[in-house]
Amino acid sequence: MREKYIEQKLVREVKKRGGLCEKWNSGSSGWPDRIVLLPDGKIGFVEVKAPGEKPRKLQVHRHEQLRALGYKVFVLDDMGQIGGIIDAIQTA
């Protein structure tokens, strides 16, 4: 399974729950691929990877920066994780 298909499924599932799943083009490297915006002001960040792939060192650093600011950050490499990630963002 390719990263692209996992990312497309994430976008569809977030939309089903009334949210937005926007691509993050920050102009600098290492930031998560997607910003998930859900009703009631819920926000989370998702790094999408092909199955079994891990974030690069710079990506891990960016994730730590966001978590230090109190944001939820997830690494998604399996379609089966999508529901749990969205649930975790909604209950934040």
UniProtKB/TrEMBL annotation:
What SMART domains is this protein classified in?
VRR_NUC
Q: What cofactor does this protein call for?
A: Mg(2+)
InterPro entries, per the entry: tRNA_endonuc-like_dom_sf (IPR011856), VRR_NUC (IPR014883)
Task: Report the residue ranges that make up the VRR-NUC domain in this protein.
Answer: 1-80
UniProtKB keywords: Hydrolase, Nuclease
Query: In its UniProt entry, what is this protein called?
Result: VRR-NUC domain-containing protein
